[in-house]
């Protein structure tokens, strides 16, 4: 009881000492000044859910003064996140446009930080990766194709940079690059870090070059290498998400995803740090699309 009372006292102190900070229209959420993430037009702050006593992430997307119709369009990311309910997708609680400059989105706070920092801190890590950032996502319609450009440069598929029409299979490419980073601990295309990093990465992806990190996987696990290579294969050969579940690397173990009643791949429950020998900086090129 004493521990509970002390917690409640500390919680009340936090709430009472932050009356000067921004709150949402319902006054349930408080935004702290601690920045936990920065994007092109978005800044993410740590915050507090005063009703439930848990930390949250408060995203502020700068849009300036816009019409109601435009604000509804810009709120697509939040609306999409709020409609999804899955343990591996970041939960969105609410969102609103302040009528002046920002769209605000309240979501779960990923307390372990970003994937790269988390990987570098742990020799053994639990792969509870959550999807977030649906700013350029769209709802899929039958035979959906697109030619708009958007995303994180290192993870975008070559067909996007080449200005070709593409579909949801570009997400499979991004997934493959994410798996590569998880198992090698390397930032994708880190070999290009320098003054012109972004342009060098774009040129490399557009030209069809794999990141050097892929050479580390070569002798470690043939099934893992095959899995990543299929994910980043040319669009015409790239498998859909459901096809990937049949890959040897994702063989089911009988355990089931609680929300989807679907087998959970054994190797994604826990990945041990890979002791991989660095190879020469040889480049492997994508096949022509």
Structure description:
By secondary structure, the protein is an alpha+beta fold. The protein folds into two domains: about 20-110, 2-Layer Sandwich (Phosphorylase Kinase, domain 1), CATH 3.30.200; about 140-270, Transferase(Phosphotransferase), domain 1, CATH 1.10.510.10. It is about 30% helix and about 20% strand. It contains eleven helices and nine strands. The protein has helices spanning about 1-15, 70-75, 75-80, 115-120, 160, 170-185, 195-205, 215, 220-230, 240-245, 265-270; strands spanning about 30-40, 40-50, 55-60, 90-95, 100-110, 125, 250-255, 265, 270. The strands form three sheets. The chain has a five-stranded antiparallel β-sheet. A two-stranded antiparallel ribbon has the order 6-9. It has a two-stranded antiparallel ribbon with strand order 7-8. A hairpin with a 6-residue loop joins strand 7 (about 250-255) and strand 8. The protein is elongated, with a radius of gyration of 21 Å. The protein starts with a helix and ends in a 17-residue tail after the last strand. The model is unreliable at about 120-130, about 135-150, about 250-260 and about 260-289 (pLDDT under 50). One of its GO terms (molecular function) is protein serine/threonine kinase activity.
Chain-wise SSE layout:
Blueprint: H1 2-16, E1 29-38, E2 42-49, E3 54-62, H2 68-74, H3 76-82, E4 92-97, E5 102-108, H4 115-121, E6 124-126, H5 158-161, H6 169-184, H7 197-207, H8 214-217, H9 222-231, H10 241-244, E7 252-256, E8 263-265, H11 266-269, E9 270-272
Antiparallel strand pairs: 1-2, 2-3, 3-5, 4-5, 6-9, 7-8
Helix pairs in contact: 6-9
